[in-house]
Design a protein that fits this description.
Blueprint: H1 6-17, H2 20-23, E1 30-37, E2 49-56, H3 80-88, H4 109-123, H5 129-177
Parallel strand pairs: 1-2
Helix pairs in contact: 1-5
Length: about 200
């Protein structure tokens, strides 16, 4: 009776059950960054490509991208609200003015910094491509780990079944030749549980 090496069985089982994404290297991984508008469907990731989508409102679909809409420092592009605020600050000094002029002029600098930071955060692009790619990669790795666990469980089950078949075949050969049955291995013999030592 021909016996296959255990290593060959493991490789054959792993190659048959391992998904294509697990067999590819991380260097060959493709990342596709897509911008979708409104309720458009985001394309699903494939085994050889990670797709991350940034969803923008429907009103932005046919507009020129913000980075190409002109010079943001041009005075003509400044909002009237900002111009009014600038005019209101003309001549302001003293308390809560963040100016070196007047009594307590320094007291408004913290509020000015906080207001500027809030305005910058509101105007900044909220798209974090790196975080989206990392989340998609984590999902893919979790799927690969689950597939690897399934492959390992299948290989272990196949090894046990093969060992049982070989043992049964050897037993049949012994019975056919009239030999005595093989002695039972110590770990397979029925044995009582060991006594538990008393606790002090």
């Amino acid at each position: 009776m021909t016996r296959l090496p255990l290593f060959a069985l493991i490789l054959a089982g792993a190659a048959a059950a391992m998904p294509a994404a697990a067999q590819q290297s991380v260097d060959a991984e493709k990342i596709n960054q897509v911008i979708v508008y409104g309720n458009d469907k985001c394309e699903q990731s494939s085994p050889d490509e990670i797709v991350v989508c940034n969803r923008l409102p429907e009103t932005e679909r046919y507009r020129v991208p913000p980075m190409l809409r002109g010079n943001p420092l041009d005075v003509r592009n400044e909002a009237w609200a900002n111009k009014v605020v600038a005019l209101e600050r003309v001549g302001r000094f003293g308390t809560d003015s963040c100016s070196p002029t007047g009594l307590g002029g320094f007291t408004g600098c913290t509020q000015a910094l906080v207001a500027g930071a809030k305005a910058e955060r509101k105007a900044a692009d909220k798209t974090d491509w790196q975080a989206m790619i990392a989340d998609e990669r984590a999902k893919r790795i979790a799927g690969i780990d689950a597939a690897a666990d399934e492959v390992e469980a299948a290989v272990v089950a196949e090894e046990r079944a093969l060992a049982e078949r070989q043992k049964a075949a050897e037993e049949l050969e012994r019975q056919a030749s009239g030999q005595a049955p093989a002695p039972t291995a110590p770990h397979e013999a029925d044995a009582a549980d060991l006594p538990v030592p008393p606790k002090n």
